[in-house]
Specification:
Helix content is 28%, strand content 8%. It contains 2 helices and 2 strands, in the order ββαα. The radius of gyration is 13 Å and the shape is globular. The protein has 75 residues and is α+β, with helices and mostly antiparallel strands. It has a domain of 43 residues.
Length: 75
């Protein structure tokens, strides 16, 4: 799995994790996250292992397929 992209100047930018083979798509969570472009701040809170990173990566991939705004992945 690739965690970073290297630009022409050699700098590395973090990227969301690649999809997993057995990844569960949580439609309600993705629908809620689709509102992130309509509010100034979106906060995702859950315990360890609840799939926050996976859900955010899925939301970014969904936005790439049908763009509504600009996403940034900060690691």
């Amino acid at each position: 799995m690739r965690d970073e992209l290297t630009s022409a100047d050699g700098r590395r930018a973090p990227v969301p994790p690649s999809p997993l083979q057995a990844e569960i798509v949580r439609g309600r969570v993705l629908e809620a996250l689709s509102g992130r472009f309509d509010t100034p701040v979106t906060v995702v809170v859950a315990g360890a292992g609840f799939g926050k990173t996976t859900a955010l990566a899925q939301a970014i991939r969904a936005n790439e397929a049908s763009p509504r705004g600009v996403d940034a992945w900060i690691a």
